[in-house]
Amino acid sequence: MALPTQPVAQYEAGNAWLADCTADPDLVREAWDAEALAPIVSGKHWLVAESRLSNGLPAATRIREEQRGPVLADGVLDRAWWLVPLDAVEELADVRQLLVHPAGWTLHCPALKSYYENRFWLWCPDGSGQLTDPAVLAAAFGPGGSRRHSEVPA
Predict the structure, then answer these.
(1) Quick one: which of 36, 122, 22, 26 has its CA closest to 81?
(2) DSSP conformation letters of 1-51
(3) Around Cβ 34, how many Cβ atoms within 10 Å?
(4) Which of 83, 111, 105, 99 is nearest to 144 (CA)?
(5) Using one digit for the tens of pLDDT, what is the confidence trace for 3-57?
(6) Helix or strand or coil: residue 83?
(7) Please, are residues 58 and 117 in contact by the beta-carbon 8 Å criterion?
(8) Which stretches does DSSP call E strand in 97-154?
(9) Contacts of the segment 91-94: beta carbons below 8 A, 24+ positions apart
(10) Residue range 94-104, pLDDT digits in tens
(11) What is the model's pTM?
(12) How many CB atoms lie within 10 A of CB 6?
């Protein structure tokens, strides 16, 4: 599978933005320099909505590119992690295929344009802070039954 392409400047801006979303950007950069995943805690700038990658790819095709925020993927674990606004919990509460992790949840991220431990950015942060609108994400996944907040998506 070919990874999406972006100009180098966008990768640099996206990496800077992602590192700056943490309490210790230098720790993130050190991890990336060592070609390792960096722990980035959610809740300061965004939350994480988790889905199966096999469900997320078809949903993503229903979202226009200009409406799509960053999505981290792991093909081995069959997981996709969508970066969504801090107020996304209510909007996504009834989307059965998504689990919105609470603030303080750690997402282990590779640098943009990198592939570490089976993880890669399906859609990279571009440095602008754009996230996927929860209403658009909910519509892309379609109707679903309600589910307890603590359940992992099937």
Answers:
(1) 122
(2) -PPP---HHHHHHHHHHHHHTSS-HHHHHHHHHTT--EEEESSSS-EEEEE
(3) 10
(4) 99
(5) 445 556 778 999 999 999 999 999 999 999 999 999 999 999 999 999 999 999 9
(6) strand
(7) no
(8) 99-101, 106-109, 119-123
(9) 91/134, 91/135, 91/138, 92/49, 92/134, 92/137, 92/138, 93/146, 93/149, 94/138, 94/144, 94/145, 94/146, 94/147
(10) 999 999 999 99
(11) 0.86
(12) 17
Lookup: tokens for 97: 């295929």
Amino acid at 76: V
pLDDT grade for 147, boundaries at 50, 70 and 90: very low
Residues with Cβ within 8 Å of 110's Cβ and at least 6 positions away in sequence, in order, are 32, 37, 38, 116, 117, 119, 120, 121
Which residues, other chains included, contact 95 with Cβ-Cβ below 8 Å and sequence gap of 6+?
137, 138, 141, 144
SS3 117: coil
Per-residue tokens: 89 = 């919990």
Cα separation, 108 vs 102, in Å, equals 15
